[in-house]
Amino acid sequence: MSAAPEAFILRLDRVSKTYPSPEGPLTVVNEISFDVRPGDTLSIVGPSGSGKTTLLGVCAGLDQPTSGSVSLDGRDLAPLSEDARARLRNRSVGFVFQNFQLVPSLTALENIMVPLELRGHPQARTKALKLLERTGLAGRASHFPAQLSGGEQQRVALARAFIHEPKILFADEPTGNLDAANSEMVMRLLFDLNHESGAALVLVTHNMELANRTRRILTLRAGALASDTPPENLQP
């Protein structure tokens, strides 16, 4: 890791996360180090229970490591208060989750507007309408999440994630609740929007077709980093 710190949007150095358990300390993430450059795409794969989602939460500052350091958009997360970490996420980070996490009482358009509305952005509605059209949902602006299919809800979630032009997007199993046809649509849209925005992308997935579309694949086993390779170098 010889490049200057500003060359990275995300940097982890010997990060571990340990939880107490009746049998003693349980290490879920063990001594993991890696960097993500602006615009890079990276997937995190591994069996269930290998620490993927925990690692993603630590990367995004949603959880704090037990040891090691995390730098996000040039800021060391350790000395930041919870409010300061939240402000950093609001400015620099987008999220997409397996279960969509749309606000049920808001329409598709209103859900997309949320990140900009929180900032008082004057063009929130205009930008949200453009993203609705970009995601093929122009006719669904006034629909509530319960009136949308799973694939449509995830496309709304993608539009919401990109509306504030984040520097990095964290996606946790973004196709996990979708059928094959909707998975393909969401995968294509995710990478198209990410390419257009220039954001870095870090995603957790069990879907190797999705993982193979990223430039790097981190494989976790029992909380440790087993490999960090381009897709073409992965062993079968």
What is the residue-mean pLDDT, rounded to a whole number? 91
Secondary-structure-derived class: alpha/beta
The total of helices stands at 7
Rg result: 18 Å
Estimate the helix proportion, in percent: 25-40%
Largest sheet composition: 6 strands, mixed
Task: Provide the spatial order of strands within the biggest beta sheet.
Answer: 6-7-8-3-9-10
Strand-residue fraction?
Answer: 25-35%
Q: Any idea what the CATH architecture is?
A: 3-Layer(aba) Sandwich
Low-pLDDT runs: 1-5
CATH topology: Rossmann fold
So what's the overall shape? globular
Q: Please provide the ordered H/E string of secondary-structure elements.
A: EEEHEEHEHHHEHEHEE
**Strand elements, count:** 10
Q: How many domains in all? A: 1
How would you name the CATH homologous superfamily?
P-loop containing nucleotide triphosphate hydrolases
